[in-house]
Amino acid sequence: MERTGWIRLDEHGAYLDADEGALSILGVTLDQLRKSEPGAFSAQPLDPVAAQAFRDAWERGDRQTLAGSATIARPDGQDVPISFLIEPQPDSTLLAVIKTDLSAPPRPTAIYTVAEVLRAWRDAERRLQEVLADTPEWIELQARIAELRAEYQRAVGRSATPP
């Protein structure tokens, strides 16, 4: 069963607001969410050095939309695989749109900018033009392009604006 919801965070990752869909996915009330520390639901936290390097790079840039996947740990002990999109908002908050399919297996944490997906997709298409058709590399590139296209469409299609 798929569920989707949104969470609004401040620029430091503190939880400000969420809809019923997100609260259901996380297994908490709005009051419990607001009292939670940033990252409280991470089942597999990022390596601190890698996480800081990514955050530094993101903050040096134009605060692009982020996308990715992870497994969250609900307070009831259930691990839930999610995909997410985090969009900077004009009021300096962040809007995280999360989606889960409870029948999906746990997902390792992966974070990337939507621009990185688009760049990788274009690079793979350029490389495809240089490779002989129907070779193993050509088939592999075709599969990679399909994956990147699907990821890009998932990311840009998840955008939502709360009331």
Q: Any descriptors?
A:
163 residues; alpha+beta; Beta-Lactamase; 6 strands
Gist of the model:
This protein has 163 residues and is an alpha+beta fold.
Indicate the CATH topology of the domain at 2-113: Beta-Lactamase
Q: Mean of the pLDDT scores?
A: 82
Order of helices and strands: EEHHHEEEEHH
Question: Which overall shape is indicated by the principal axes computed on the Cα atoms?
Answer: globular
Strand order of the largest sheet: 2-1-5-4-3-6
Query: Total helix count?
Result: 5
Distance between the termini: 25 Å
- Under CATH at level 1, the class of the domain at 2-113 stands as Alpha Beta
Radius of gyration: 17 Å
Protein structure class: alpha+beta
- What percent strand? 25-35%
Spell out the CATH superfamily of the domain at 2-113.
PAS domain
Question: Architecture of the domain at 2-113, according to CATH?
Answer: 2-Layer Sandwich
The stretches of 5 or more residues where confidence is low (pLDDT under 50) are: none
Structural summary, described in words:
By secondary structure, this protein is α+β, with helices and mostly antiparallel strands. It has a domain at about 1-115: Beta-Lactamase (2-Layer Sandwich), CATH 3.30.450. Helices cover about 40% and strands about 25% of the residues. It has a 6-stranded antiparallel beta sheet with strand order 2-1-5-4-3-6. The two termini are about 25 Å apart.
